[in-house]
Amino acid sequence: MKKYKLALVGATGLVGIKARQVLEEFNLPISEYAFFCSSKSAGTKINFMGKEYIVRELKEDSFDEGFDYAIFSAGGETSKKFSPIAASKGCIVVDNSSAFRMDPDVPLVVPEVNMKAAFKNKGIIANPNCSTIQAVIPLKALDEKYHIKRVVYSTYQAVSGAGKGGVDDFTNTQKGLEPKKFPYPIFNNCLPHIDVFMENGYTKEEIKMINETRKILERPDLKVTATTVRVPVLNSHSESINVEFENKFDLKDVFSTLQNYPGIIVEDNPSENIYPLATHASEHNEVFVGRIRRDESVDSGLNLWVVADNIRKGAATNAIQIVQKLIENDN
Amino acid sequence: MKKYKLALVGATGLVGIKARQVLEEFNLPISEYAFFCSSKSAGTKINFMGKEYIVRELKEDSFDEGFDYAIFSAGGETSKKFSPIAASKGCIVVDNSSAFRMDPDVPLVVPEVNMKAAFKNKGIIANPNCSTIQAVIPLKALDEKYHIKRVVYSTYQAVSGAGKGGVDDFTNTQKGLEPKKFPYPIFNNCLPHIDVFMENGYTKEEIKMINETRKILERPDLKVTATTVRVPVLNSHSESINVEFENKFDLKDVFSTLQNYPGIIVEDNPSENIYPLATHASEHNEVFVGRIRRDESVDSGLNLWVVADNIRKGAATNAIQIVQKLIENDN
Fold first, then answer.
1. Do B303 and B288 meet the contact criterion of CB atoms below 8 Å apart?
2. Cβ-nearest to A185 among B193, B224, B279
3. Does B237 qualify as catalytic in the annotation?
4. What residue of A is the nearest CA neighbor of B228?
5. What digits encode the pLDDT tens for the residues B3-61?
6. A147 C-beta neighbours (distance < 10 Å), count
7. Strands A56-57 and B51-54
8. Helix or strand or coil: residue A154?
């Protein structure tokens, strides 16, 4: 089997640290790894697969080394500047920032949902927003069978989604210290405010969920609305998803459709208090779906409770799975 | 002005303690207060309005003392047994349990919404579920103008809603101790499970929200669905409410309708990070409404973020406001 060269950009951030762990677990046919970061963290020594690496500053000539794949998790500005450079040198970039997600030339990919789009990449593949990734997997499973008419999202998002600053705020505001990342203490509070506010009163996170859901499901006119909320949970996002379908459904069929779909674990046994939980989903790569029940307020409605590790499946794992599938397709 | 005798049943629980505080603040024309509890807490000495009282065990002859009003916050079983006894002796009971809420002979009352129903009481008036009270106030304001078609609730409910056991779990699971009230640690978690599960997969809390919303709004066929979730917040429930109306609306008109409705404080200025928060709503008697924005996924849709102190407006304050209005009407 062919061996590849992979670069991880943003190797010292929360997602970068998790990506290193997931790369070790996946053990892809990669002969050479390289780790990049900003000048600030350059020189950091890391241990990866039993070997010591030095994380180097990302520079314009970094991709002259001839990488096959690069995973970017270093923020929008770094992606905007360096992804096209990497792509121009024949490296396929899986970009975790929001920089290219809505670019019509860039596929926005969740492997379980639309891997076909990734194979048509022009050098850059966008990794969707964490809260969108976990939602579209069960939605795709159900859209194929019952055709979705409308989706109402309400999210319960973990602080790790805001990076190390979010995690620090969680710890510090517990001790009564002032918040630095969020505008208010996240401890003992729910903040209906993720990313910046737009002119129409929505947050950018809400607009991302709406637009990215449409693009990934290839349903550009799908009716979607969202309220995204930060909750005092360290890791794993939870989501209350209300779905209306065009077609009638049998609830048992919904269960088996979800159970048989790749990447989903159904946890739904109310009599035994079995339902998805943030603390249980953390450190797993799957999306957990439960509280599956008919919504009687519309003809063909369904309520779901969907939980996933936002740093794994919502970021690092999804990007690495894309690379994995590209490699499989190349062999 | 006439003076009244009032009994507080369940005076030592979380709601009872808050009811004593709210009664002091409201300073109603009451000449005589009495405080009752179970045999377990009987004998507890409390200070109320500068005077020491002994909390007495509630007995079948307790209402022989001739009370005008009683507020019950001692659980469903106590209410079922003692409310009819109190009512039979001419005392008007405001019952905070779920025992009588759906009884067609018992008005279910939020003073800002349907006080008229309270005036037709037959001795017992039910205080609605906490999560319903805060939702129906803005919904009533809007239903009057635009006629609601459908409501989708997703709640973010504080541990105080589960009483002292919930608060203890919050504190103890933070320290790594085992939960006692909830099936899983509430610290660092969101539990999509409030009250018991029903046969249809819904929790009793969800069914309460659906049925009580219909009864209070006098819209028995209103389309409502709910997902109710416990979050690691000590006090004040937050709610993501998605509403679809029959009539078109102007968003400015929605703002002014809510601003002018009694009991509502609109907090909505995204550019200044102004939106309702659990920590800000606590210790207030009003319902805070924000994140008011058009939902473009239906013809006439609206998203709201609604927060209130579940022990005050969701329980103690609402009950005391009912008594206050009954007294005003009697004079």
1. no
2. B279
3. yes
4. A240
5. 999 999 999 999 999 999 999 999 999 999 999 999 999 999 999 999 999 999 999 99
6. 12
7. unpaired
8. strand
Which of B157, B198, B225 to mutate against chain A (most A CBs within 10 Å)? B225
**Termini Cα distance of chain B:** 7
What is this structure's pTM?
A: 0.97
For B317, how many CA atoms within 13 A lie in the half-sphere containing its CB? 19
Would an 8 Å CB–CB cutoff place A240 in contact with chain B? yes
Say whether A178 sits in a helix, a strand or coil.
coil
Mutate to test the interface with A, among B186, B230, B240, B305 (most CBs of A within 10 A): B240
Write the DSSP assignment of B212-234 as a string of letters. HHHHHTT-TT-EEEEE--B-S-S
Return the CATH number of A4-127+315-330, one of 2.30.30.100, 3.40.50.1100, 3.40.50.1370, 3.40.50.720: 3.40.50.720
Given CB atoms, is B167 within the 8 Å cutoff of chain A?
A: no
The CATH 3.30.360.10 portion of chain B extends over: 131-310
B193: nearest CB among A191, A273, A293: A273
How many whole angstroms separate alpha carbon B106 and alpha carbon A285? 51
Residues paired with A4 in a beta bridge: A30
- Give A191 to chain B, closest Cα distance, Å: 7
3-class DSSP string for B272-285: HCECCCHHHHCCCC
